[in-house]
């Protein structure tokens, strides 16, 4: 069957994963009268892209695009997030959110180039990802039309469970890999993997040991610690040194992949939480973020040495939570993201130096830090033993002035 | 020598530690013509209070007060900090800051009762503690007069090093314990111990293994994890259950001490940072905060299940950093602390439930959480598999409306 | 025609205004098979309620409820907003938003009492009010069902303009008042009136002089100023004194209505802006907020005298914008509103005293303020001429300590 | 007497005003053995600079520098403040604070060039200005030494009142202008004038009509309004058009001075408040800020039309209060100011367009606004009458999704 001859409704660029869901969506869209092209983004997930291309073509896709976005993912999304210490609800490092902008951007570029009036994706109607993809689509290409089958009654009423999808796959001769479906769903990229749904929906169920895929269990990690040094320029990692292995790694992507390898071996980066989705639903998620966890510890530590107190305080109190929420809520392509990224860049000029780390069974332990170019830290001035930098008498005045307001208040309150 | 007959300048209540510094201050104040009473606060530090009382009296103190403040420290200071997830500069749990208000308050109460016009302390002129103690003093008793010898030239120029203090101690017959002085200084209470100064002043020097006092090195901690359940009511811990040991602990102080014991055994709560002191100096500090680290993980996790997203977001973005900074800067007795504590209490009404934890070699791992009284989490609603709670079509409208503003912006920017 | 016998779909409580739109909605709902009861909230708008009741009954309403909500509007919504200095986007005093919660709450109470499964309103599908009403409905009565005809294609496609409504009114024998429709729409209550749409949609069109309804044009206001004193307790007005008229007004509602009268006479409270609606659309609105404008000036002035600097700063920086946004976005019945209202109340304990004002041709001019119970202001201490309260030498230390950090930065930057 | 031959302590650059205080300081510094150079900054205050130069030289200054800083004051300090809508405690436009950085910077430049080891000023020990000047000095030239006579006991104990200064002036043959001293003190520049101290220290005393210097009393302003148009580029004014006078003004300084003239004639910009000084004292101040008041109204209005909602919200909630506080507290030369100014610039890219204003007896009334380059405002989209841009059905989904969280909360609370 040639899609070109029968498609009457226009051309769709489908974000395709190679799995059962998006293969069925692909076939269903063709059935509905669309020409369908498939788009696969390589953001570092474990995937047989060649097999997926064959499968997509077999299902009737007129073209299939596989795009390697790993480097731009690391350099454009992950490293600014490291600079900003982004974190959602105090714990989650935003691995899914960070990948969405690069995926959506390339999809829109291809949609524009290939004259696709439509894009489609396999996100459900209850999650965050539908929002993240579509807000990015609309910002980047305001005239794009989105087909979200899991929000279309004709689709979701027809496919009410895996059984219905398998039956449709059989009908359409879509090959199905005979693996036992895991009792949870995952999303993977080079920054993290997420686990949710299925047995995880009960927030009091401990994830089974064999669920965790990227990292070794801390209990099974080596008994001997690994020691590395990470060098930062303007808040971004530029070198990792592993002296015991006589290894130096440079290059944005290369550094990240090397840290991933070390973190995975040492059981670093697991998380199990209940979080608040953008649409107002609480949801349980488990995550592994190996390299991201190391970089967060190292970057925050270096900021202690090299970043001014007030800049840090302002960045922490405003920019970090706002930028983190914005990423989570899918608003990376927005005027406010531009605004916040200008502030993030402005905050990192002095964040230059090295952090020495020990990695051990889930722990990322700072063993020291230094900076050649930055002299905000002054050993003599902070010394309790040396009279340097200022007179202790000055502290007296500092405290007395601070106390003026509190004394007035105390007089009113008569606290004792 | 009777202080009563020779003191002509008035009565001082000295915050006394039993160590060399405050013993010399005690003798020096008497030499200057003051009557001196000594005050020792028991906030859970390791200390031989009986020996200290004898020593103080031997030095000429007319009275010595030893006050057990452990319970009020835990219940009035630590647990509200747990409720607020207080943290300074993203990493430090504020152990020294949290103890200061209870210590200062009792000192002012005794000063009022004993008609002391003066109080004195042994804090240096470069640190945070002088500020914390004195702002508390002035707020609680605005007419108090403070003698801070380490800011008085006549004192600090006379005692320029340990040698001068030892000579003075010999002259005044102050007994000196013959221990080798450690190459750092510490401050200890039941919440934490801090290490700073000395060899730690070089931020690239790794603390020696034998420095850490409260916790076992994670590398030396047991190879078998410990599992516990912590129950919270309105954000405060009310019970700890250790099923394998058939142990249940209740009572604010008792819970805290039991968690300390478990955390110490499992190498939990070490920290090594460069922080910004209130007076604008960067300073390197190492800390051990055993129970506080466990409680932070557990409380934040339970908030995921039981706290509304917007309340959490507002509390996180404003109350937590403001209250943390305020504690660090010694402004607990202040109108703004009253204001923030009202907000903290208002935020915790729904934070009820249990968290199950695994403690293992420095890690605090959440294994599950539940809440009997709270139904903000709805398994069916968050399920990706079940159509429940709302129609996927609603998400379509939600996204479309969110996109209006971004489309307008995108049209202006022509991003693709 | 008896609604009781023919209505098969259930009972609706319609928010009824007496105008053409909601009268047509009333008739249309009956036509669709619903029993309809009407609800009119008196929040101080100019309205012939008796005529509206007759009209609603004539259209087929089985019951009509007219509820006087003026006092609860002032005391529960307006005065907390005065305490918080609420303002949207720096200029708008939120008059429409403030009325919605009291209107929606009574509607839900009646819906519950009268066993109405449905409620309905006449809000359009592009504005803020649909959001405000419905979020309140759902929070107060989560099982309520909402019929919003202007979002139902069968309705809005049938009634595409005023002509269609008039034709339907004629068909249903709905009496239509023969006034020329104004080229803008309004929403009025005792706090304010809003004007939008029609000729105002061009943001560069100056509103015609005869549009403004509540206030006299400042150019036409009296040439002689009016002077009053407003007394506040905990941030709420408790008395207004007009000495020249030998008049004292007390009582929450009475004070508000009296200030409205004075403000209207003196041309106070006009505003013309472009604002951002919740749904992301920019919209031009004109407003008159007479008493609210006076109270804002007076309350903020008294806070200068009576509120601690840090509490003010925290409240200004966080609570005021968050609470203002929340009101604008219709989230008054929410956990975060409860949280913020606790903080607002905590902030106002010391805001007690009097403010003397001059009202003149659009200006609200403060002429003095005083507080009997509050002594945070200390004339001697702030005097530049008197050495009181603290030593100037203390300021030296204060500045020196503040400069430590800046000197370090300056050394790095070499600014000169 | 030649200062050059007798000065043994080094060279001082004194910030000199030409008045009694700084003339006495000049003579006193020479008496103490310093060589003194004088520095006068022209920031638009009313002053006879030529007479002051003669006076300073007569008192013994070895050099006198008069520097015209008006243009850099307007362009580097005032316009970024307009962009940020800076305001202190909700009402004060920061006129004194804004002038300090340009004054201090030139003083440090001259001190460096002329090899002055010292600078001196006539600020009191209780005010904000000592902090503002000295923090700027120390940041710009960390090794500068500051002589603040009003904080030196030898000085302030000798000169306890105006009488002592007059006696010293007579002794030193310093000419004194025979004007009656006003019962308040002032600080003037082209942005504003401040009045404080003296009779104003009682916050309930209405300022006398003849105190106000820059603006006409609104009651005496013209009965006919003045109409102007202000054009902005990236948030800064670039043109003022007065059509009735066929006048167009361009140039940063020229625009500001022209707006000052119009505002003064129309009684615009008076303020009377109690504010919180940096050092924690409450203080009463009266201010006239003519052009600044017009520009604030116009700029905020244009942002309504041209600035994205989220960027505005973030800027308002964080950048504006932080930058305002920082200016007030004298921390313009700081890393955090650099950080905030980067954010301010990033926020203003789209703030381009015109605002039409009516000036009338103290009122600044917006009559319309437009923007040729910005299309965030969409007349059709915001129209209540037109179905454009999006479907009303989308709003339904938007509201439903927003309500999920609130329904859950409502079910728990059972509000009705």
Polypeptide structure, described:
The structure is a homotetramer of 416-residue chains. Chain A has 416 residues and is of the alpha/beta class. The first copy, chain A, has three domains: 11-68 and 97-179, HUPs (Rossmann fold, 3-Layer(aba) Sandwich); 186-307 and 350-370, Alpha-Beta Complex (Argininosuccinate synthetase, chain A, domain 2); 379-413, no CATH class. Chain A is 43% helix and 19% strand. Chain A contains 14 helices and 14 strands. Chain A has helices at 3-6, 20-31, 49-59, 70-84, 95-113, 129-140, 153-156, 162-171, 252-265, 290-306, 309-328, 335-347, 379-382, 392-413; strands spanning 11-15, 35-42, 64-68, 118-120, 145-147, 185-188, 193-196, 226-233, 236-242, 247-249, 270-276, 282-288, 353-360, 363-370. Chain A has a five-stranded parallel sheet with strand order 3-2-1-4-5, sandwiched between helices. A five-stranded antiparallel sheet of chain A has the order 10-9-8-13-14. In chain A, helix 4 (70-84) crosses helix 5 (95-113) and helix 5 runs parallel beside helix 6 (129-140). The first copy, chain A, is elongated, with a radius of gyration of 25 Å. The termini of chain A are far apart. The model of chain A has no long low-confidence stretch (mean pLDDT 94). Chains in contact: A-B, A-C, A-D, B-C, B-D, C-D. At the A-B interface, helix 5, helix 6, strand 11, strand 12 and helix 10 of A face helix 5, helix 6, strand 11, strand 12 and helix 10 of B.
């Amino acid at each position: 069957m040639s899609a070109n001859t029968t498609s009457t409704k226009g051309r769709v660029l489908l974000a395709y994963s190679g799995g059962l869901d998006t293969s069925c969506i692909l076939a269903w869209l063709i059935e509905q009268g669309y020409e369908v092209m498939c788009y696969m983004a390589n953001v570092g997930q474990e995937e047989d892209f060649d097999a997926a291309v064959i499968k997509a073509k077999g299902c009737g896709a007129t073209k299939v695009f596989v795009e390697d976005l790993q480097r731009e993912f690391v350099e454009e999304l992950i490293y600014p997030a490291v600079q900003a210490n982004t974190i959602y609800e105090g714990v989650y490092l935003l691995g899914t959110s960070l990948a969405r902008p690069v995926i959506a951007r390339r999809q829109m570029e291809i949609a524009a180039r290939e004259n696709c009036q439509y894009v489609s994706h396999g996100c459900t109607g209850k999650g965050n990802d539908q929002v993240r993809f579509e807000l990015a689509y609309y910002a980047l290409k305001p005239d794009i039309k989105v087909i979200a089958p899991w929000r279309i009654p004709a689709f979701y009423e027809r496919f009410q469970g895996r059984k219905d999808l398998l039956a449709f796959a059989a009908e359409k001769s879509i090959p199905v890999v005979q693996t036992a479906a895991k009792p949870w769903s995952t999303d993977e990229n080079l920054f993290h993997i997420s686990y949710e749904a299925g047995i995880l929906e009960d927030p009091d169920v401990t994830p089974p040991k064999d669920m965790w895929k990227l990292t070794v269990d801390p209990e099974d990690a080596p008994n001997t610690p690994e020691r590395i040094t990470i060098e930062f320029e303007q808040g971004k990692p530029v070198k990792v040194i592993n002296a015991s292995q006589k290894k130096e790694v440079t290059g944005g992507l290369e550094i990240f992949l090397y840290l991933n390898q070390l973190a995975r071996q040492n059981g670093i980066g697991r998380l199990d939480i209940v979080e608040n989705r953008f649409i107002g639903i609480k949801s349980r998620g488990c995550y592994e973020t190996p390299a991201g966890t190391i970089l967060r510890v190292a970057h925050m530590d270096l900021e202690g040495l090299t970043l001014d107190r007030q800049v840090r305080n302002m960045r922490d109190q405003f920019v970090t939570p706002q930028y983190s929420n914005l990423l989570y809520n899918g608003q990376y392509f927005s005027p406010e993201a531009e605004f916040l990224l200008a502030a993030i860049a402005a905050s990192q000029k002095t964040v230059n130096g090295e952090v020495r780390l020990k990695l051990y069974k889930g722990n990322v332990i700072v063993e020291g830090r230094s900076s050649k170019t930055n002299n905000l830290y002054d050993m003599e001035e902070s010394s309790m033993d040396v009279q340097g930098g200022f007179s202790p008498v000055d502290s007296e005045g500092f405290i007395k002035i601070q106390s003026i307001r509190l004394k007035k208040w105390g007089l009113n309150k008569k606290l004792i």
